[in-house]
């Protein structure tokens, strides 16, 4: 699973709307939708913010790992 599908899955699993997550990232809903559809690359700073928000490791949110470790985990 790549990061595009991962950020959408995390949002849906946590029952957030695109508008709510967009507000967290200080972008418009359309911009966030473009992130989820792969039309626009999500900035690294936003990926970090999402990882912190969902409390998941960057390797997980980026699709590098399927292990859902917490953000600050040293594992």
From TrEMBL:
<dbReference type="InterPro" id="IPR010982">
    <property type="entry name" value="Lambda_DNA-bd_dom_sf"/>
</dbReference>
<keyword id="KW-0238">DNA-binding</keyword>
<dbReference type="GO" id="GO:0003677">
    <property type="term" value="F:DNA binding"/>
</dbReference>
<protein>
    <recommendedName>
        <fullName>HTH cro/C1-type domain-containing protein</fullName>
    </recommendedName>
</protein>
<dbReference type="Pfam" id="PF01381">
    <property type="entry name" value="HTH_3"/>
</dbReference>
<dbReference type="InterPro" id="IPR001387">
    <property type="entry name" value="Cro/C1-type_HTH"/>
</dbReference>
<feature type="domain" description="HTH cro/C1-type">
    <location>
        <begin position="7"/>
        <end position="61"/>
    </location>
</feature>
